[in-house]
Amino acid sequence: MRVYKVDDFQHPQDSKFANDILSSKTAEKVLEKFHETNLEEAYTYLYQSSCPQLTAQTSPKLFELLAKACKMFGLEKIPSVYVTRDYREIVAVRGINEPFLVFSSEYLRKITDDETLFGILAGQVAAIRCNHHTILCITWGIDFAAGFIPYGSWATDPMINNWKRCRYFTYDRAFSLATKSRSLSLRQVLINVLLPDILNRMQNGTSQDAFINQVEDFLETMNNNKTQALIKKALSMYSYKIWLPERYSEINKFFDEWSLDNANQSL
Amino acid sequence: MKRKILRGLQVSDFIHPDEEQKKKDALSNTTVQEFLSSAANLCRTAVDPVTQGTFVKINETSEPTLMRIVNEVCEILDVSPIPDVYICHLMYVNISPYSSDKPYLVVPDYVLRYSDEDMLYYNFGNAVTMIKADHVELTTLAAYMPGGGLIELPKLLFTAYLHCADSTSDRGGLLACQSFATSVRNHFWELGIPPNVSKNFLTNDKQAEIFVKKYLDEQKIVLERYNGIATQVARKWQRMSFLEAPANIMLRELYNWYLDEKGYRAIMEKYG
Fold first, then answer.
1. Confidence band (pLDDT; 50, 70, 90) for A265?
2. How far is residue A71's CA from residue A100's CA, in Å, rounded to a whole number?
3. Is residue B140 within 8 Å of B44, Cβ to Cβ?
4. How far apart are CA B133 and CA A79, in angstroms?
5. What residues contact A69, with CB distance under 8 A and at least 6 apart?
6. Which of A89, A228, A237 to mutate to test the interface with B (most CBs of B within 10 A)?
7. Is the CB of residue B60 less than 8 Å from the CB of residue B67?
8. A5-54: per-residue pLDDT in tens?
9. Residue A209, exposed/middle/buried by CB under 10 A (0-12, 13-18, 19+)?
10. Looking at CA atoms only, how far is residue B272 from chain A in angstroms?
């Protein structure tokens, strides 16, 4: 089995914005405070005390696939997994020194096949390899501190939101490398929006792809309509809306660049 | 369930009697008109990237059942053209129409997961009526207007109109699903009773009539019991500032219109 390096799957924009955040003095201070005040323990405790933990006994398939994803993406220690009840959230990496995964039970329910589950776990393992858990803690600290200064978040939001959005490109790349399936990689972008039977009829990645026209229209509008592009830019700065067409388009580009369609190494 | 097609149905047949006046009141001042018109245009431009970028458009191939219901609802209520339909990930029980060059509908996945087919007729009927009755520009604006403190003030200009418009669209929902029990189940879902629970005790229109009467009588007792000055102020503030009118009032409006000889039944006789 090939073991992927961070450079293989971390999206350049994720890498750039992550470096911007990590190299800022505020980030340094936030991390210092976390260590000084033992906030990490509190942060971890909040999840571990209120979210049920999944184990290899309760979820053997999930842990089998997680172990495989860890091996494939070069993560030595298999992270713990928790579930939470949150309709909006999907899955996230938390913690600083000992990162762990938190799945929304709604999201977990939507993952109905092993290959998709493997891809999603690969995405989260890749996130840990790219230090996303540390950056998420820092951004949480920055958000918290900015809340005490009037309009403080106006200065920090654009940098943080850009990264929060671009990190999904990295997950998608890891998903693609893990499954080698363009169709599944594109499908998982919409998994949290559509019910399974609708999703199955979208035929993502085929010549009948029902989402591709929307992707092309969106990208064309953003290239040619200055007002719409400006609004999108403003929305991107002050919210971390994930633009589905951009994720879709990035996955297609990645498959073309890596010729993954013919790799034939799926689960 | 076979539903009557209300060919030729006019908004004037079922519009809430105060809606037009409230709209005139809200838009009587030229400055207000200009402000709302500019804000609505801005809002329309701002909403489009969100829709195209974060929702998923469906069609007859990807979601034949839902598109069949939309087509049938538009036929029943005599609405054309048929609006586009998008799905979003949201824990919310209402389908919403959005203003654009061509208004479209946004369906939360939560609605799809928990509604039964009859309830979808009501929900789509409600949303399509908002397009038919020309509510969408102001409702989109109201939904996207920022809130809090003095920023709330412009909203107060048109909340009275929105409450009447809501009542009209509730009537449209009833006309589309043609079942009072289903309409009531949608209302109670907004109040917290899940569809799979309400279907056990609201199985037909007669049962729904009795249940709603009892509920409204209880509400009346509550209103009489809590009638201190602070409660009265709170009640007025709720009526003035909340985009949605209180649920008991909306349900009373629909119940009265359903029972009124010149209301729901008259329309079903006229067009049926």
1. very low
2. 16
3. yes
4. 55
5. A75, A118, A121, A122, A124, A125, A178
6. A228
7. yes
8. 999 999 999 999 999 888 888 888 888 888 888 877 887 888 888 899 99
9. middle
10. 34
* Residue written as token pair 């790219």: A130
User: What is B27-84 written as a DSSP string?
Assistant: T-SHHHHHHHHHHHHHHHHHHHHHHHHHSEEE-TTT-HHHHHHHHHHHHHTT--SPPP
In three-state secondary structure terms, A126 is helix
Two tokens, residue A182: 């363009």
Residue range B21-79, pLDDT digits in tens: 988 887 777 887 787 777 777 777 778 888 999 999 999 999 999 999 999 999 999 99
**Residue from B42, B48, B52, B111 to probe the interface with A (highest A Cβ count within 10 Å):** B52
Token pair 């079903």 is found at: B268
Confidence check: pLDDT of A266 > 60: no
ipTM of the complex: 0.87
The Cα B65–Cα B107 span in angstroms is 14
Domain definitions of chain A by residue range: 6-263
What is d(CA B47, CA B98) in angstroms, rounded to the nearest whole number? 8
**Residue B13 has what DSSP assignment?**
G
- What are the backbone dihedrals phi and psi of residue A101, each rounded to the nearest 5 degrees, phi first? -105, 140
DSSP states of B159-227: HHHHHHHHHHHHHHHHHHH--HHHHHHHHHHHHT--HHHHHHH--SHHHHHHHHHHHHHHHHHHHHH--
Residue B146: per-residue pLDDT: 58
Distances (CA, A) of A240 to A102, B115, B140: 19, 30, 22
CB proximity A244 to B under 8 Å? yes
Contact residues for A267 (Cβ-Cβ < 8 A; gap 6+): A114, A115, A118, A178, A179
Between strands B85-88 and B104-108, the pairing is parallel
3-state secondary structure of B87: strand
A195 touches B: beta carbon within 8 Å: yes
